[in-house]
Amino acid sequence: MLPPLLPITSRLTSFVHGRGKQFCSVASTEQNDTSLVDVEARVSVVVNDLCMRGITQYRKAQVTCLYQLLLDLGIKAETIEAQLLEMPHLLSHSHKAWTNTCESMVESGIPSLRILQSIALHPELLKVKVSLLQDKLLLYRQMNIGKLNGLSLVTKYPVLLLLDPSHLKRRLLSLDAMFPPASLKNLVHNNPNVLLDSWEDIMAKIMYIHKEMGLEQPQIAAARCLKLPLLHIKTRHLFLFRAGLYKTPNLYKDKQSHRRNPSLNDILDTSDKRFTNRCSVMEYS
Question: What domain of life does the native source organism fall in (predicted)?
Answer without folding.
Answer: Eukaryota
